[in-house]
Amino acid sequence: MAPNKPSSTIGADAAGIAIYWGQNGNEGTLEETCATGNYEFVNLAFLPTFGNGQTPMINLAGHCDPYTNGCTGLSSDIKSCQAKGVKVILSIGGGAGSYYLTSKEDARQVATYLWNNFLGGSSSSRPLGDAVLDGIDFDIEGGTNLHWDDLATPQCPFPDAWVGGALKTGLFDNVWVQFYNNPPCQYSSGDLSNLENAWKQWISDIPATKIFLGLPAAPAAAGSGFIPVADLTSKVLPAIKGSPKYGGVMLWSKYYDDQTNYSSSIKSSV
């Protein structure tokens, strides 16, 4: 599932292109993704099960089987990416997950789990092996809108229904806002006004370090909102790059980027 909301990260610096990887077994390996040289961030999609006492579970589609500890082999890929300067982020949530936080204590338990199993803590059962990820991406598209600020993401119509409050905390380094599947915020047939107005609201009202323009990498990657390369590079990016909060472009997803070479086509303009 493509993310249906803007997403946010904690623990990463912003620049360039961010890509979602993990939901299609035909999109190449994580190591190959980073070796393209096109991406500054790779978001591992997704950890869709957590909260409310559930055992958190990662789902990387056809890439590996977490139920047999089959994803621990990704540790070497993650380290290879990081050696190339690519930040590898775990994306929690997604469009088809089972997740919500029932209380502050529930949020604390999830945060502790994420720290010990994916970040700088320690655990005997780290799903991705001993590699230490560079941050957490919050792609929250359902559940309730409570307690996300206790755990420490957004949909373009402002403010985001699920995590608008959390975004106002100032705890997020990067926010990749989905300017697709949201017609009131989209570029459409040469008309920049909706996207530009939405962009101005995000950069003025959200205290994040960097805001990214979230786009589908191919027409088939989303229901609406695809921007042809020529329009993006000649019209859209020149209109938003002047902001000191501009961080780059987020793309859904690596599989669709492989079909169109979208990131390669826009990289020099981002």
Automatic annotation (TrEMBL):
Any one biological process term the GO annotation gives: carbohydrate metabolic process
Domain GH18: 15-270
Record key words, sorted: Glycosidase, Hydrolase
SUPFAM superfamilies in the cross-refs: (Trans)glycosidases (SSF51445)
Enzyme class per UniProt: hydrolase
InterPro entries recorded: Cts1-like, GH, Glyco_hydro18_cat, Glyco_hydro_18_chit_AS, Glycosyl_Hydrlase18_Chitinase
CDD domains found in the cross-reference section: GH18_hevamine_XipI_class_III (cd02877)
Cellular component aspect of the GO annotation: extracellular region
Membrane-traversing stretches: none
GO molecular function: endochitinase activity
Entry EC number(s): 3.2.1.14
UniProt keyword Hydrolase, yes or no: yes
Pfam family, one: Glyco_hydro_18
Family: Belongs to the glycosyl hydrolase 18 family.
Protein name: chitinase
Organism for this UniProt entry: Prunus yedoensis var. nudiflora
